[in-house]
Amino acid sequence: xxxxxxxxxxxxxxxxxxxxxxxxxxxxxxxxxxxxxxxxxxxxxxxxxxxxxxxxxxxxxxxxxxxxxxxxxxxxxxxxxxxxxxxxxxxxxxxxxxxxxxxxxxxxxxxxxxxxxxxxxxxxxxxxxxxxxxxxxxxxxxxxxxxxxxxxxxxxxxxxxxxxxxxxxxxxxxxxxxxxxxxxxxxxxxxxxxxxxxxxxxxxxxxxxxxxxxxxxxxxxxxxxxxxxxxxxxxxxxxxxxxxxxxxxxxxxxxxxxxxxxxxxxxxxxxxxxxxxxxxxxxxxxxxxxxxxxxxxxxxxxxxxxxxxxxxxxxxxxxxxxxxxxxxxxxxxxxxxxxxxxxxxxxxxxxxxxxxxxxxxxxxxxxxxxxxxxxxxxxxxxxxxxxxxxxxxxxxxxxxxxxxxxxxxxxxxxxxxxxxxxxxxxxxxxxxxxxxxxxxxxxxxxxxxxxxxxxxxxxxxxxxxxxxxxxxxxxxxxxxxxxxxxxxxxxxxxxxxxxxxxxxxxxxxxxxxxxxxxxxxxxxxxxxxxxxxxxxxxxxxxxxxxxxxxxxxxxxxxxxxxxxxxxxxxxxxxxxxxxxxxxxxxxxxxxxxxxxxxxxxxxxxxxxxxxxxxxxxxxxxxxxxxxxxxxxxxxxxxxxxxxxxxxxxxxxxxxxxxxxxxxxxxxxxxxxxxxxxxxxxxxxxxxxxxxxxxxxxxxxxxxxxxxxxxxxxxxx
Length: 716
Ligand code: IVH
Prior knowledge:
With about 725 residues, this protein is of the alpha+beta class.
C-alpha cells in the first residue's frame, strides 16, 4: 500500500475511541510506527512533507494512545522513543497575543516595482509622498515570538499556525546569543525573531549523525526545527543554536498601554548589510546585486532572500495588514535552483470556475531537494509564448516554497519528435465543448462534475465552511454517484436514508459518516463571512468576505434579498476598502445570476441564514466583554465599574475571550494592529444604539473593534 493510502487508512482509524474494538492491534501498531517514521523522513530529510503538522500530530497522538493502553507493544523504533523532530509531548500550547503573519513573496524586479507602486498609492491616500525602505537579510530558520517582562526574558513560543504555537521557553534559554535581560525596555515587550543553526554546526552535527547511522538533516532549517523540539534542554544547548530578531510584535508600559519601541536600539541580535552595499541604491538594484547574495553566502548562516520594509514604523501602522501579510513589507526570494527535465505528457485540469489549466507531467527530477513530477503550464498564452511542446526538455525551477515553474525550453535538445500542445475541444471531465476567451479555455457547463467537485472542495475547506473529513475521495464518490450536484447538496447528508446508502461505498465507514454529518450540521451556524467565502466567488477570498460582511452589517442586511440588493449595488460595494472594480463587477454578476440565486435559496431552505445582523444580536444577549486601550476622560477603574454595573465583562488586557476592544485617544499601536480589519462598529450613532452603556461613559467618538480572531468568527 502506498504511504498516502496507508496514512489515510490510519487517519480514519485514529478517531476510534475504544481501542479494544480494533482488530489486530499489533499489526496496526507496526504500520503506524512505519508510517510516522516515513513522514519524519519526508519532513526532516527530504524537506517535503506530504501531510500537515496537525495531521502528523493526530497520528502521533493515536500512537501514544495505543502505547499507553498496550505498553507491551512499545518498540524501540517507535517515533515516541526518539526525541528528534517530534512534536514533543512536553511542550504546552501557547497563544500569540498578536497573530504571527507571514510576508508576501516576490521573485523579480517587476514584483518589487508593483510592491512600491502599491505602497506609493496607499500612502498617497494619506497624503504621504515621501517614504523610505529598509532592507534586511531574510533569515532561513524557525520563526519565534520572544516575550520580555520588565526586561526579563519570560517566554518563547513557536509560530505554530500563527495564532497558537508551542511554548519552547526552556529550550530558548539555552541560546547563548539571546540576551535574557534587557535594560531600558518597555514593561512588556514581545519580539519576533528567527532561531537558526550555523552552517558549520549543521555540518558537524550531520557528520556525527552519519557515524551513528542516524538520518541526516537536509538543511540548517530542518536541523534547527529538530533541535528546538528536543525534550532535553541539555541536548538543545549542545546544538549551539542562535537567535536573530527583526520585528516588535507589541510593547506596553506598566499601565498596559501600547508604546513604541525600536529594536535597533537594543542589545538584541540583528544582522544588517554593510552600508557600502545598500546606501544610494534602489531596492531593485540591491536585490539584483550579486555582491548582496555573495555577502550573505559568505556568512555562517542560511538566508533565503531579503526583506524590504517601509522604514517608518508609523507608516507601517497606517498600512496595516491583510489577513495573511503585512502591507508594509515584502520578501524577495533569491532565484531557486534550476534543473532540466522532459515533459512526458500534458493533462487538462478543470478548475472550480471552469477554467481549463494545462498541467505537464514531467520525468521526475529533484530540485532543491524535492522531487518534482508535475508543473502547471498555466494557460495557452504561456505555452505559445514559451513555445512549449510535448516531449520538450525544459528548465524548471522551484519558485518560493514548493510550486515548480517551467522557465523555458532547451531548444537545442529537440529531436523532431516534439508535438504542439493543442487546447482540448471538449471538456476532459464532462465532454461538453470547450470555449475560448482570451488566454483561457473554459468549460461552461455548470453541472460539469470536475467543476462541481472543485466547488465542493472549496466549500468545505478550512477557511470556508470548515467541514472536516471531506477530501477528494469522498467528493469523488458523492459527485460520481449523483448524490451531489452543487454545494447545497452537502446538506442532503442529514438524510438518514442517504447515510445508510452511503455505507456501501468504500471509505464510508459508520464513524466517518457520523463525523461528516455532525460537521455538516454544525456548519450551518458558520458566520456569514465564511458562507460568502465558501461560495467561491471569483476574486472574493477570506478578507474580502469579511469586508463585505462589515458592509452588510452596517446596512443592517438581515436577509438574502437585502444581501443581494446591496452586493449588486456597485456604488455601495466600491466603498469597501481594498476592493477593485473587477471584484465589484464579479459580485454584481454573481449575485444577479439566476442559478446563483437558486443555489442561495436552496442553502436557505436547509437552514443557512444570510444575515449580517444576527450574530450581533446574539452577542448582545450574551453580555459582551470589553478591554480598553488608549486614554479616556475617565480612569480605567471608573470605566470598569460602569461596565460591570451594566452587566458587561471587563478584561484588563484583550485575551481570547475578549469580545470588543474599546479604543480611546493615543491607543496602543499594537493592540490596534491586532484589531485592524476587524472593526465592527464605527461612528458614535451605531455604537451608542448597540451599547447604550457607552453613553454613561460620555465617550465622544469611540471606536469599538472586535479584538481577537475567534470573536471575529462569532460576529460575522
Ligand atoms: S518581518 C510578517 N523580517 O520570513 C511579519 N521576517 O513570511 C514580519 N523572516 O516566517 C516579518 N527574516 O519569520 C521579517 N528580516 C526579516 C525576516 C523575516 C526572516 C521570516 C518571518 C516569516 C517569513 C516571511
